[in-house]
Amino acid sequence: MNLKALSYKLRKDVINIIVSGKGGHIGGDMSVMDALVALYFNIMDVTPENYASGKHDHFVMSKGHSVESLYAVLAEKGFFPLEQVLKEFSRFGTKFIGHPNNKLPGIEMNSGALGHGLPVAVGMALACRMDGSSSRVYTFMGDGELAEGSNWEGAMAAANYKLDNLCALIDRNRLQISGCTEDVMALDDLCAKWQAFGWHVISTKDGNDIAELTAAFEQAKQIKGKPTMIIANTIKGKGSPVMENKAGWHHHVPNDEEYRQIMQDLDAAYEEALKNG
Amino acid sequence: MAKANKQVICDVLMDAAKTDKDVVVLCSDSRGSASAAPFANAFPEQFVEVGIAEQDLVGIAAGMARLGKKTYPMSPACFITARSYEQCKVDVAYSNTNVKLIGISGGVSYGALGMSHHSCQDIAAMSAIPNMRVYIPADAPQTEKLMRALLKDNKPAYIRVGRNAVENVYSEDDCPFEMDKATVISHGSDVTLVAAGEMVKPAVEAAKLLEAQGISTAVIDMYCIKPLDSATLLKESASSRLVVSIEEHSIFGGLGSMVAQVIAQHAPKKVVCLALPDEPAPAGTSKEVFTHYGLTGEGIAKTVRENL
Fold first, then answer.
1. For B97, nearest residue in chain A (alpha carbons)
2. Is-contact B300 B128, C-beta < 8 A?
3. Of A172, B51, B194, B209, which shows the fewest CB atoms inside 10 Å?
4. Coil/strand/helix, residue A141
5. What is the pTM assigned to this prediction?
């Protein structure tokens, strides 16, 4: 299976996880999926086998509400069975809660409160440098999340310490729970902002294109003396017109009719990707 | 004159850093006020400056700790427990990272700088976070023992110390210390005084005054605010008619609240909480503020006499 097809297979897993647990942040799960697939299947050195040793690349999901997409990816990587996620997600007493927690294998830091991932990732990158480790550190942030001031504290520190082992990504889907990001709290010009903070910035043409994302992560590895920010221009709800670019689908749970249509759309996209890559 | 507790912390960490490259101190433009400059100078590779950014301070400390560092962010107690409260909760306690949060110049240490710089809510706030321990050492010898014990574990903790050098309660040679066990300074059958941090010394002074007047007084140094040593509290106060808590903290949610809960549930008797009232503390030195609120040897003794 090629990675594009895999991304649609995993989107279907996410829909099933959300429907099974009767909750979840579906729109951001769909927009960030391709970046997660590119990172976990093309870029990061992390497996269930090397995870316990601590000697692997590191990832912090700053936009923790997209945890369902992370569960689907980690299950595909073999950290835990998808069936377990489907059975337990959001149920009483589960470890598969609605935000990342490090009681689960494959998840290093708890998140959920926004604006935490970047400073934590800065700390990890500093620790890697102190240890002379070649491991790289990644964190994914939401665009609405950038209104949190702590991100900009982390942005300053990462550039100050010239952390070229750190690569962050913004899931720039331009929607947040109340509507368009530019209406809620304007973020543009995002490229100029991060450049002004001393980062190497890559703005993707299509933040849902796994090849383009992979190339961006590879480019980041070559950048010396500064951290890299990938602004992934994505489509919120990517995969089905039922959800795409609709702020109301930030954390909507599909009803039966919507579920059937979404799965039909994702199946079609999956088949198409299998055929044409 | 004894050393300030924050200086003792720096000394212990410098000693540890000599043989452990994973010991890391972080500051938020606070190396001077935290007495951490000697560490920064001696171990530049194990020191991280984050600038005036306390959220970043704690987040970075947590990220480093996740990858095996033993991190000691040192910043004024008012900022590290309030500005970065969510980082303390999520990145440190909830994520269970080996971060020892050092709150310097706690309570009303900053005197005339006003309520923005006082931290009289930190014990309540930090104690309410699951998986966060809270310690307030009384003097230099106890601070050293506490820090050496904390270096041996890998769990989160918050340690609050004051700004100024304080007179020793214990001596270098005689500082009984057991981790998470209150130190019983004196036994007594009429009243039990429970204090922490800079309030231990006046509690000891009060006990002397009371003993001279024939009131048998127990003094407990509850440096371990959380986990509170309930067993020692109940044992020492078993025959007391009165329990008095003394703390440099808001009357709400600190040592007094915890002591009262334990006594009310297990051995009901009168508890009086000496603390800072629900108002901004007046400008002044710590000593002036303590005197104003009766947090002195004489003030504590008077409270005991009025309530026995």
1. A109
2. no
3. B51
4. strand
5. 0.97
